[in-house]
């Protein structure tokens, strides 16, 4: 198609005028308020001994479960948009301990990172790991925080001492009142658990005779002695307890994801379970306006004669 | 991406920069002339043509540079302020769940209520931190072990969120005072000396320290030039750090007094505040607030500064000329056709 010289000059003038108007708008148009949905996260990291098992895969390498959890927490911080809040907590014994209430993630990234880096197995105050109770306490404490955060609970699900199926600790709250996701960490195979000493330094592994293999209730009942004896004695070894975590998640109305492949995917899972809140941000339209202005000017000078029609 | 001292947030736009040269290779706007030699060689026209092409290139390049979102990255600058560097050492032991300053033993049984020492400490410390704009705060977490949870930071958000978190849930088992005191001092290790350095201990009990711990603590606190403030939250109003005549014999040998004696014996500025009521707690913090305004080097983060507007102004300037000239040519062509 050939455009007459007159029309070409006319269009050029028109495009230039429009582009001029757009650039002026980009300079002087005020920012538009726009609503974005964001979620606040409280990241609870398991710091019990079983998290020292090196069977989590990070960028193709085997690392300890805690290292994996810390690195994924960091990368999810980066996924979170500015304005969202993130907080940190650890879990040991039978409770979650909140270290920092959720704070705005961009301005406080540095402090969040400093704190995340200090999370070590040595922070565990007692050598036991009652995952279910810890989740309940996390929920109870999250209820006292405003705005109420979504809990991201990173654990391998290893209960020590073991829990009796019929005597599962009761959840007193309302399922789903505090949204959350349990993130299963660790591999499928049963592996020895590094043992930490008083100073939190790894010193050997937990031996078969160091731990309880049967829960307290069953072990105290004479009539269950036979059944107890038949139970496999594997509680000194650890793997990711997927089915246990799934049960737990459904009890408290959380989502469950087992060893997510990427932080992006984990963030998506979190978002799908989270209660979002909307915040208003000032959105500057300058990028759109100057983008269109550039396009208009470029359209004038694109080499059309090389695109087939050379009759020009 | 950093380029020319600017941070380019959307640097991929720069890949389109070669497009800005299109006007020099392209002839969309040329008029087809039957015989080129007929066109007179006019230096003024040549100059105008080159000038317009340059302006087009300038407009396109400026728009792309503006789109690449250049900004002066956030900067850290130091200024002289007034305040102190304060490490908060908040007791996390279970006894902090007990109610604060009750008059009788019987009243001390409700655990973890709103009047627990930990919650009250949180409320007052929050107010204290808010009042002090220039201070740098650190936070040491301590129970059986201690961790330098929040290294010295200017962020009030982070400090307040850590203090608030400390009031949630129940207390932890035990306290290891020696470890906590050493960790707090270590926060200042390898830091430039900026001004007054304080370890603010808020606890409801003391602890007997081993001789070795005492020597280490004394040495480290002198070396790092630290002051110790101890806000002692009394469980019982009449208990005091200094022996009083006629008091209960049970109190003559309590660990609090031993710790108090130790702090007094080392050559380090030390003040104890015995908070026996909400008012005395508030007074203690107010007094620290009054005393601790000494010159302090404050690091400030200047927010990043977008620089797109500079390029938009350039584009506006070029487009103004271009739009005017092309409108003029269109008017001329129109005229010729009439």
Automatic annotation (TrEMBL), chain B:
Chain segments annotated as transmembrane: 10-27, 47-69, 310-331
CDD domains attached to this UniProt entry: vWFA
Claim: Transferase is one of the keywords in the record: no
Superkingdom per UniProt: Bacteria
Keyword match Nucleus: no
Keywords, comma-separated and alphabetical: Cell membrane, Membrane, Transmembrane, Transmembrane helix
InterPro entries with a match to the protein in the record: UPF0353/GerABKA_families, VWF_A, vWFA_dom_sf
Pfam families per record: VWA_2
Residues annotated as domain VWFA: 85-288
Protein name, per record: MxaC, protein involved in Ca2+ insertion into methanol dehydrogenase
Organism (species): Methylophaga frappieri (strain ATCC BAA-2434 / DSM 25690 / JAM7)
């Amino acid at each position: 198609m050939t455009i007459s010289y007159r029309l070409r000059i006319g269009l050029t003038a028109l495009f230039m005028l429009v582009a001029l108007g757009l650039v002026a708008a980009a300079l002087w148009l005020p920012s538009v308020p726009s609503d974005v949905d964001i979620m606040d996260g409280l990241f609870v990291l398991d710091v019990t001994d079983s998290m020292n098992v090196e069977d989590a895969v990070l960028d193709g390498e085997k690392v300890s479960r805690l290292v994996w959890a810390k690195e994924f927490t960091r990368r999810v911080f980066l996924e979170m948009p500015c304005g969202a809040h993130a907080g940190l907590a650890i879990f040991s014994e039978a409770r979650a301990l909140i270290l920092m209430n959720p704070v705005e993630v961009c301005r406080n990234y540095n402090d969040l990172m400093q704190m995340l880096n200090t999370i070590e197995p040595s922070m565990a105050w007692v050598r036991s790991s009652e995952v279910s109770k810890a989740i309940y306490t996390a929920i109870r404490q999250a209820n006292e925080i405003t705005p109420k955060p979504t809990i991201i609970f990173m654990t391998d699900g290893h209960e020590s001492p073991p829990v009796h199926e019929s005597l599962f600790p009761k959840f007193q709250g309302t399922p789903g009142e505090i949204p959350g996701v349990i993130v299963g960490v660790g591999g499928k195979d049963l592996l020895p658990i590094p043992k930490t000493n008083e100073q939190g330094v790894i010193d050997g592994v937990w031996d078969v005779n160091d731990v309880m293999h049967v829960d307290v209730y069953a072990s105290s009942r004479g009539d269950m002695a036979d059944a107890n004896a038949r139970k496999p004695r594997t509680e000194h070894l650890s793997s990711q307890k997927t089915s246990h975590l799934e049960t737990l998640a459904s009890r408290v109305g959380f989502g469950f994801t087992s060893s997510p492949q990427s932080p992006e995917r984990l963030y998506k899972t979190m978002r799908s379970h989270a209660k979002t809140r909307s915040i208003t941000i000032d959105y500057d339209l300058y990028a759109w306006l100057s983008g269109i202005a550039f396009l208009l000017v470029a359209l004038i000078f694109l080499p059309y004669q090389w695109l087939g029609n050379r009759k020009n | 991406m950093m380029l020319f001292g600017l941070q380019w947030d959307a640097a991929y736009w720069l890949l389109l920069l070669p497009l800005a040269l299109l006007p020099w290779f392209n002839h969309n706007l040329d008029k087809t002339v039957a015989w080129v030699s007929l066109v007179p060689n006019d230096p003024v026209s040549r100059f105008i043509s080159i000038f317009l092409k340059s302006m087009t290139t300038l407009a396109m390049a400026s728009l792309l540079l503006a789109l690449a979102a250049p900004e002066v990255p956030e900067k850290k600058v130091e200024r002289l302020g007034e305040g102190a560097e304060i490490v908060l050492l908040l007791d996390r032991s279970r006894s902090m769940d007990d109610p604060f300053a009750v008059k009788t033993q019987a009243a001390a049984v409700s655990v973890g209520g709103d009047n627990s020492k930990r919650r009250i400490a949180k409320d007052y410390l929050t107010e204290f931190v808010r009042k002090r704009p220039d201070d740098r705060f650190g936070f040491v977490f301590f129970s059986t072990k201690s961790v330098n949870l929040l290294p010295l930071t200017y962020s009030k958000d982070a400090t307040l969120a850590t203090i608030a978190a400390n009031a949630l849930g129940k207390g932890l088992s035990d306290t290891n005072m020696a470890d906590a005191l050493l960790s707090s001092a270590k926060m200042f290790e390898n830091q430039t000396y900026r001004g007054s350095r304080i370890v603010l201990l808020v606890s409801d009990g003391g602890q007997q320290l081993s001789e070795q711990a005492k020597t280490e603590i004394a040495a480290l606190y002198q070396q790092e030039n630290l002051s110790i403030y101890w806000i002692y939250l009394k469980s019982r109003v009449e208990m005091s750090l200094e022996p009083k005549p006629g008091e209960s014999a049970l109190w003559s040998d309590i660990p609090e007094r031993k710790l108090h004696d130790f702090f007094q014996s080392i050559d380090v500025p030390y003040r104890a505040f015995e908070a026996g009521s909400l008012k005395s707690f508030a007074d203690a913090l107010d007094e620290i607030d009054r005393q601790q305004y000494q010159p302090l080097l404050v690091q400030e983060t200047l927010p990043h500064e977008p620089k797109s507007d500079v390029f938009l102004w350039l584009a506006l300037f070029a487009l103004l000329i271009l739009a005017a000239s092309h409108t003029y040519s269109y008017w001329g062509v129109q005229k010729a056709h009439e």
